[in-house]
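Can you give me the bound-state structure? Components:
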Amino acid sequence: MQTAVIRFPASNCDRDAAVALEKVTGRKPLIVWHRETELPAGVGFVVMPGGFSYGDYLRSGAIAARSPIVQDIKAKSERGLAVAGFCNGFQILTEAGMLPGALMRNTNLKFVCRPERLKVETADSRFTKTYTAKSEVTFPVAHHDGNYFADKDTLARVEKGGQVLFRYLNNPNGSLNDIAGIVNEAGNVFGMMPHPERAIDPMHGGTDGINLFKSILETI
Amino acid sequence: MKALVYVGLKPGVLDPQGRTISRSLNDLGFDEVESALQGKVIELNLTGTDVEAAEARVKEMCEKLLANTVIENYRIEMRMAD
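Here's the bound-state model for the whole set.
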């Protein structure tokens, strides 16, 4: 399975994502620069990494979401390409309109950086199928703009459609309904503020993140 | 000409920064402050002389990049350079 990590100016979790993907697939992911206009042929799974793309100028993820490679990834995701975004990657996916809602400034206005306990809401998804539903996992969080917001109708639709895959047990940022991670309606685009790619090795302090990569890669 | 684009949060969207600003003003004795909303102003210097056409283009810029219409409103003010 060939995977890819997109690198934007000021991405800083691109290497972590690459290590996670290689650990699970046994194959080095391609690192694709944001100015590229087309994803290399044969890529089955794309990760939008965390970081501070474009210095969070204008809005977190806003400029990166308009970069050439994201337009190609968006078009391919509409035809089924699997995509995941973590932290800034999640912000980019919402800004690109690939996931509903938006990530706003944390309600306490603080940058939060700590391990956070999450509940796996459902195992009935391509990104969580190797977890146990309602089980607890711990992923690190490190963000300033992680407060998930969607208007009432959108939120109702996301909840009803079973699109919430992870919730915070101790909401660190004010996210509506404690939402930590969501998937699109089609089930192939996923975003979350916490960092599963930083929880894949005992040296990280935990390995709860590995199943996320195993889950999605099993389905491709 | 210039376009001033004011971007702010939509009504009903919690603005923690605005809330902190209004609380801080209250602490300084400005008790009349009931609430504050924090937004941003983007000043664009534009070529051309057709204000109407320019404003239509700026609106497109707002929809495509300058505002995230999931959470934000925008208002455009066109100004001829003096």
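A couple of observations. Helices of chain B lie at 16-27, 51-66. The beta strands of chain B are 2-9, 40-45, 72-79.
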